[in-house]
Amino acid sequence: MTIQIGKKIPDIELKVMGKNGPESVTTAELTAGKKVVLFAVPGAFTPGCSMTHLPGFVVNADKIKAKGVDSIICLSVNDAFVMDAWGKDQNAEEIIMLADGIAEFTKAVGLEKDLTGVQFGVRSQRYAMIIEDGTVQTLNIDEKGVDKSSADTILSLL
Length: 158
Known about the structure:
The protein has 158 residues and is of the alpha/beta class. It contains 5 helices and 9 strands; from the N terminus they run ββαβαβαβαββββα.
């Protein structure tokens, strides 16, 4: 079941790239006492994610943070090495590139997408959340395209 507005996000241990390799971080650490924009993509380096979704947040990071957002998180069902390389490729210095390598968070919030038919395995749906102190305030899910979860849309909702 998809997480609902007003609910706490599950506290899951995920990975980010640190100075010496992948480091563990929990969703509670990332969101407690903070206003966070978390957006998820089906896969790093994929066309829609690399040409539209992530770049929109990179370009608008300062505007989003000026609206009181403490951090912007990009989540994908990829490993920390891939997320780090993709972040560098996209100049995403202001974005936390969060690896949900085994789709644990994605499944816990009910936003997984089974793409085994095209040999991608379980991935995340494309969505964006505004989270305040660990509680979902806004959840926009895209069925197709990158409209509801785009940086422009999220910026208009802050």
